[in-house]
Amino acid sequence: MQVLDHAVAWPIARRDIHHECGPHQVAGVLRSRGIEAGIEALYASSLHRYGDWMLPMDPPLVLARYGIRARWRFWLAGSFIKNLKRALDAKHPILITIRSIQGTGCLHWISAWGYEGDTFYCYDSQCESAEGERGNVVYSASRLLAAIPWRGTFVTRMGQE
Description:
Distance between the termini: 22 Å
Oligomer: single chain
Helix content: 25-40%
């Protein structure tokens, strides 16, 4: 079992949230390091805020403003679970682009913070089954793989790679 020991105060999940998922994930990483920042400040630019976009290359740029090193990568589906476990074993939370769990067809950001076997502890701001109205959720490896768009997906990993 590997669960990151970061104490994160998750924002309350909003059932109607279709936007701001990327900034919510970035906010979780910042909170785990004792940094608070408003969602509006967690976009790469004012244009991104206006359009409510967080592209795969944006989280490292935003995190760098707060002194956090991160890199974005494209992980193939065939090695996704192995890569995810390796990153979590190294105590790095991972931001992941998946297909929206609400079936909107839109891409959506979640984050993984630990695992036990093939069960992953994630934060998903759209999660309908969020315990206590919070965005904490457990996903199986098969559920994560089923939500990967394309033949792989974009991730953001903190620290050296």
